[in-house]
Amino acid sequence: MNNILLIGCGHMGSSLLNSCYKIKTNNFTIVDPKNYKFIKKKYRNYKIDSYKSINNINNISKFNIVIFAIKPQISQLVLREFKMLKFKKNTLFISIVAGKKISFFKKNLKHSNQIIRVMPNMPSIVEEGMTCLTSGRQVSKINKKKASDLFSKVGEIIWLTNENKLDMATALSGSGPGYFFYILLSMQNAGIKLGFSKKIASKLVYQTFYGSLKYYKKINKSPQELIRYISVKGGTTEAGLRSMKKYNLGKIFSKSLIAAYKKATFLGKKNNE
Description:
By secondary structure, this protein is of the alpha/beta class. 50% of the residues lie in helices and 15% in strands. The chain has helices spanning 11-20, 36-42, 72-80, 102-108, 141-151, 165-174, 176-194, 198-219, 223-230, 236-246, 249-271, and strands spanning 2-7, 26-31, 49-51, 65-68, 92-95, 115-119, 129-135, 155-159. It has an 8-stranded mixed beta sheet with strand order 3-2-1-4-5-6-7-8, sandwiched between helices.
């Protein structure tokens, strides 16, 4: 049985809870100062306990998984309440706190050699996320499997061998949905400029993106192959792609990802000073 203590039930915390609370081997307890009453009411038929503070919980040693799904700005304040708490030596601590390194949790938690950092992304809310995980060498195979089982319920997972690569994942998959929506918006606006209504332009772009992704997944060919396949010589697609190459769209993307990566590493250093 996984006795899971979830600290924070915002977007990522609630997406994990919603995907895992019905699994019989998972027993959730939630701490969320703002939403604890709502959570208790919403999940009253599933025996999910919800509290305003960690100090309201009597038997803290029963938890074998503790998940921090809080904002980095309040992490120091929240961790102060955990300094004197005694968990089991094999308790797994999972952090979904952006920018906070494993060393930060080791400094602020007793008996905390079983720590895993996780970087999910927004589509986890609809169980189609991309989650990257990393851990220290001391984390047991059993605890790694527990983390894999939990986060595979909200999408795909990848284990990274180096914690620093989590900043790379932040720039690519973590921030990726934002890039996707920006491109989607840009294409919609271009369609409106061509003369379509907003409603029609939105539908055309949405279905084009959705269908293209499904096709890409099913056809099992590289993007380069698909570009060659759809770009008929002298055709419309070739003309559009030629313009993209002229303005070096690929280089713009590369620079954008590098900017996001630099920001992630900066925030990581700042948050762990």
